[in-house]
Structures are given as C-alpha cells and as structure tokens.
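Bumping my old thread because nobody answered last time. Still need a sequence for this structure:
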C-alpha cells in the first residue's frame, strides 16, 4: 500500500519546518527570542516549526536573518514554494472555473506516453461521455459552491481533451471497480450512453480497460482515484485536495499498487459482460 497520498506534500512541508527549527537552535535562540527578533507572536514560531502553518517568503527571510543564516533563505524559500505547490486545495483550483481545470491538464496529458488510471468511484475523465461528464462536473460545482456554474463548458472541454485516446503515441491502461458501472451519477439515458461508450472505448487499440469484479477475491483494497503519468508523476484525488506525488520511491509504490489492482481485474469478454449487466439493470 502506498503511504498516505499526502505524504510527499506533508514530508516536504515538514522538511522546511525542521530546517527552520534547526537554524533557530544552531543560533542559540529560544522560540520566544526568535519570535521577538521577527516581530511576531511566539505561537507563530511554534506553528511553523510543527508544520501547522506554512511560512511565507517574508517569514523565511526574517527567520534566517534572525538566526544569522541569511544565506539559507533563498533555498528554503524555493523548497517551501515547491512543498505548497504539491498540495493544491480544490477550492483554490476551482476558483478559476471547472473549465480552467480541464484545460490546464492538456499539456501533461499530451506529454505522457503511458497513462495508468485507477478509479473506485467514477468512470475516469478520459473515458467519459459528455452527458456523464456534465453530471460529474455539475456535482463538483454544487459541492464547491461555485458562484458561476460552468460545468457545461467544462464538460465540453473535458471531452475535447479526451480525444487524445484516439491519437497515436499514447497508451491508456485503465482499471475501475465494478461498482463504478452501477453508481447513478447521471440520469438513466446518460448512464446508458456512458456504459455503451465503455464498450467502444475498451475495444480501442490504445486502451486496456480492466474491471475489478465485486465478487473477486481481493488481494488489495480499493484506493483513492489516482492517475500515473509515465513514471514521473502521480496525481491523487482527495476530498479536499489534489496531491501531486513526485518522489521516485512513492511513484514506485503507486506503480506496484496499480499492478496489484490490475491483476484482480477482468478484461475483454468478461469485462464486456459486466458492462452489459450494468446496462440491463438501468431501467
């Protein structure tokens, strides 16, 4: 099992916090003395050192100056910025609109040769129909309380992005849990269209579609939705955030987990039978 999906981000935050704490101790300063030198309350120093509060660029520069280590500031600023960029809150992402999120990922998709996708809750975006995508993004707009619901244009942008499955130079290995076929995300007609498209998409030369049957003897438990871009990046979707995992060791763990999940899935005629069964119970 991979470490917590946010472990890379949290570890990066803690590395900055621990280095700042070490600088304070090396300078012979107490928490209170460091705070006084930086002109803030000592509780802020404690929160930063315990990785409860991320330091701003100015905080880091003042801290390093107080600890007589101004030469350490720039590296720590860069390290802190990288740590915070690993953990991006959904609320911040959706502020620019759902369409923006779809379009912002086109470059990463096009630069990836082998896409590995696992989902226990939804049909992955790259295999969604417009009606299903509209329902999914409509739920997202409601959950995040967007002032402007742009789910319709976002759904069209998602479908446009999904055309990559028909382009040469890319391979898609997709594993979903069987309940995904039965979750009523959209109305019956849209669900029928989506399930029908899975039959078509699963037959595409560049797509390997595996479905883990509910009756399968599990050798690994269901995981959060994650997308592996070649062997360089893993994107994990949590309730509150999207976490980007870039540490080679953790990427290896996700690759190994994906292979275990893929090993439980059925393919070809068996997968089509599960999809057809889901279509039959729609009405």
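Sorry it took so long. Here it is:
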């Amino acid at each position: 099992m991979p470490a917590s999906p946010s472990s890379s981000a949290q570890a990066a935050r803690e590395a900055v916090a621990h280095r700042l704490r070490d600088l304070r101790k090396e300078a012979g300063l107490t928490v209170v003395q460091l705070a006084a030198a930086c002109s803030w309350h000592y509780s802020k120093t404690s929160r930063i050192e315990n990785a409860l509060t991320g330091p701003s660029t100015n905080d880091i520069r003042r801290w390093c100056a107080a600890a007589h280590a101004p030469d350490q500031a720039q590296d720590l600023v860069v390290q802190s910025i990288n740590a915070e960029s690993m953990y991006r809150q959904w609320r911040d992402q959706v502020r620019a609109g759902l369409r923006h999120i779809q379009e912002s990922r086109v470059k990463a998709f096009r630069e990836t040769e082998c896409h590995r996708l696992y989902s226990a809750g939804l049909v992955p975006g790259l295999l969604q129909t417009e009606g299903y995508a509209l329902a999914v993004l409509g739920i997202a707009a409601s959950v995040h309380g967007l002032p402007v619901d742009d789910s319709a244009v976002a759904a069209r942008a998602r479908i446009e992005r999904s055309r990559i499955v028909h382009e040469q130079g890319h391979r898609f290995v997709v594993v979903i849990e069987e309940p995904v076929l039965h979750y009523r995300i959209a109305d019956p007609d849209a669900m029928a269209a989506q399930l029908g498209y899975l039959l078509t998409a699963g037959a595409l030369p560049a797509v390997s579609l595996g479905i883990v049957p509910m009756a399968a003897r599990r050798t690994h438990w269901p995981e959060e939705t994650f997308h592996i871009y070649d062997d360089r990046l893993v994107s994990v979707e949590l309730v509150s955030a999207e976490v980007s995992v870039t540490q080679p060791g953790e990427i290896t763990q996700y690759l190994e987990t994906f292979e275990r999940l893929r090993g439980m899935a059925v393919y070809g005629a068996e997968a089509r039978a599960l999809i057809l069964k889901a279509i039959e119970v729609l009405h």
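The beta strands are 87-89, 114-119, 171-177, 207-212, 226-229, 233-237, 241-245. Let me know if any region looks off to you.
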